[in-house]
Each structure stands twice: as C-alpha cells, then as structure tokens.
Specification:
The protein has one helix and twelve strands, in the order H-E-E-E-E-E-E-E-E-E-E-E-E. It is globular, with a radius of gyration of 15 Å. The N and C termini lie far apart (38 Å). Strand 7 and strand 8 form a beta hairpin. Strands 1, 2, 3, 4, 5, 6, 7, 8, 9, 10, 11 and 12 form a twelve-stranded antiparallel sheet that branches. By secondary structure, it is mainly β.
Amino acid sequence: MRQFSTLSCVTALIIAATAGAATTATAFGPTATQQVDGVIVVAGSTCTWANARTSANPPTALSIDRTSINKPGGSLSCTGGVTAALNNNPNVTFDDTAGYAKADVIDITGTQLGISCRYKATNVLWDRDGTTRKYVNQAFTATKTSGSFLCPGSVTTAAGGSSLLFR
C-alpha cells in the first residue's frame, strides 16, 4: 500500500505548496516578478514547480494561477510515479505583522497507477521565514472529496513539509 500513502502525501504536498511566498519589490531589493515556486517532500516523493503566476505580489492579497502550475502549461512534476493537478486558483492573504500567509482553499487531485484521489484543505497557514517571502506550512489536514475507495479519507501534512517562495 506504499503507493497509496505516497499518493496521499503527494496530494498533501501540492496542497501545501500552493499557498505561497514571494519577494516584495523594494527600493533596496529586486523587483518582484509575481511568481511563486513550490516544493514538498513527503514519504519519499518530491513534487516541485517553478514560475507559477500570481495576480499580485505579497503582501497584497493574491491568487495563484493553476494553469501555470499544472502541465502542459506549468512545470509541476513529482517523483514516485505520481501525477497531480491543482483544481482551483488558491487565494492567499498575508499578515506581515503576525508573520504568516493563509490560503483559502486548496483543491488537488493526485493519480498513481490509474487511481485518482481528490482532496480539499481550507484556511491553510504558512509561516514566514524571517524577512524573506519564503513561507513554510503549518500542519494541516486535507479531506477526500472524491476518488477511489482505496484513497484515505484524509491526509495530513506535517509542519515544515512544504515551502513556497514568492519572487
């Protein structure tokens, strides 16, 4: 059953990775490009993407464009024979005073060996890494919304299991 736990973990990865981080443009730093990169390593599988488009730069509220993450237009790739796709454009808000970001809803489907599992997580929190626009997830649980009876009813991602870097 390793394949299904890996699928669940990869699904959690993508959920975690969509909530984001970035580098704001300042007079002293580089100009932000309204892009976000994501990575997560869970149960031996790694999923990554680069250059996903956002509607704004942090700390302005923004949405992440799923078409720039999912293939064929995006670069989302996972190890371990898993494919994944983000089903929504997550909206992300930032609280720089408290040092976190929050994604409203993350809806993801993971497929392995022809078995698909769809999960949703709400109000996913991400801790800001110092003064950068890198964010690391707090622990969260995503609930299965559809898929095979072989899919777990929920998947949990431990704190620090994913990160996002807005740039």
